[in-house]
Amino acid sequence: MSSKQKTVAVHAGTRLAGSKAVPVSPPIYPAAVNWFDSSDDLDSALDGKDYAYARISAPNTTLLEEAVAALEGAEACVAYASGMAALRSVFEAQGFKPGDRLVMPADGYGVTRALYKRLCATLGVELHALLMTDPEVSARIRELKPRMVLAESISNPLLRVPDLRVLARACQDVGAAFVVDGTFPSPVGQRALALGADYAVQSTSKWLNGHSDALGGTVSASRERMAPLRAARVLAGDVLGPFEAWLTLRGLRTLPVRMKAHVEHAAHVARRLTESPLLERVIYPGLASHPDHATANALLLGGGPMVAFEIKGAGRAEGMRFLEALKVGRPGPSLGDVCTLVMHAASASARRFTPEERAAAGIQENLIRVSVGLEDPDDIADDLLAAVAQGARR
Ligand code: PLP
């Protein structure tokens, strides 16, 4: 190599001396570009057999994809820059044509609804928003013969639990691709593919990461189904960055132990909340009073990690006062952190619904959603109850 300083500054220190050591924590590979001594090796890397350019593939993303695929029980996984990017990609992979139909939850995540509404409008696709726990939903799917059906493992924010096995049979009968957004329970709380889903989607920004420090999303499925999604990601460029992949993988290492504790805490908090005379209703799939309790028992780890409740007589102002009175829970617009995150549903997760869509989904101004954290569960319950009492005061 030349000893001229300009060249040395650019080229020196790019190769590590050979080592047989395997790091327990993988290194972060920020390189967007890799170069090869052999043009044959470069050629094969550009075919996806090695790392050439980070929009095609990158080591930290590969490691995360392997881990998520293993957790989902899938042959393959593709990671994206966010959960929404994952949901967009799985939609785009279906090859919708004008006149095709899409079925999605009427009571699901508002941003997914807004995205799919836009995509459907652009393509001339009919969007049918249905309640996935409606006993008639399978018959409607058979009637509509949609190209794709999206369900959420636990609906957001009303925590309804559809029977994915029943929906999967209806989808199979009409050849619809069955996509399940399993963000709320995480793959530890439910493996959607084993219940008949064709694709399992995660917003890894939530439980998989677990510490609210990286956005991300994944789609997992058979190798055959994932190949076009992988190819499309190279073109669309909505890849996950190496730092985010590394942080998410680090968080994922503790996912099973965290989820067990989150679910136990959620059950405890839900039980404590039922004692409050200030609440209209406590919504937790693990409670016998929940309309989908039997399905939750069969399909979820415990009753899941999320609790919701309606405050008696509260409107938006009381809801906001409640949020501001919290001392342990944090009023943050997300879920899946080690800390308890509390949200006023109508103004946050369902913000992008029209008032009519909110009413059809049954989301009222007094509805609060809680992602139950790893703090002491009695501290969480005491805090929520005290804040409800404070919110009710003028
Ligand atoms: N799916 C569900 C159920 C969600 O709650 C969210 C975000 O809140 C998403 C998807 C979108 O994920 P992201 O924020 O990573 O884009």
Task: Describe the structure in brief.
The protein has about 400 residues and is α/β, with parallel strands linked by helices. The protein is about 40% helix and about 15% strand.
Write the layout of secondary structure elements.
Elements: H1 5-11, H2 39-49, H3 59-72, E1 76-80, H4 83-92, E2 101-105, H5 110-123, E3 126-130, H6 137-144, E4 148-152, H7 164-174, E5 177-181, H8 186-189, E6 199-203, E7 217-221, H9 223-236, H10 242-252, H11 255-273, E8 279-283, H12 293-299, E9 306-311, H13 316-325, E10 341-344, H14 355-361, E11 367-371, H15 377-392
Parallel strand pairs: 2-3, 2-4, 4-5, 5-6
Antiparallel strand pairs: 1-7, 6-7, 8-9, 9-11, 10-11
Helix pairs in contact: 3-10, 4-5, 6-7, 11-15, 13-15
Walk me through the structure.
The protein is globular, with a radius of gyration of 23 Å. It has helices spanning 5-11, 39-49, 59-72, 83-92, 110-123, 137-144, 164-174, 186-189, 223-236, 242-252, 255-273, 293-299, 316-325, 355-361, 377-392; strands at 76-80, 101-105, 126-130, 148-152, 177-181, 199-203, 217-221, 279-283, 306-311, 341-344, 367-371. The protein is of the alpha/beta class and 394 residues long. It is built from 15 helices and 11 strands. It folds into 2 domains: 3-252, Aspartate Aminotransferase, domain 2 (3-Layer(aba) Sandwich); 255-393, Aspartate Aminotransferase, domain 1 (Alpha-Beta Complex). Helix 7 (164-174) links the parallel strand 4 and strand 5 (177-181). The model has no long low-confidence stretch (mean pLDDT 95). The N and C termini lie far apart (76 Å). The site of pyridoxal-5'-phosphate has 15 residues, from helix 4. One of its GO terms (biological process) is transsulfuration. GO terms for molecular function: cystathionine gamma-lyase activity; pyridoxal phosphate binding. This is Cys/Met metabolism PLP-dependent enzyme. Its cofactor is pyridoxal 5'-phosphate. The modification N6-(pyridoxal phosphate)lysine is found at residue 206.
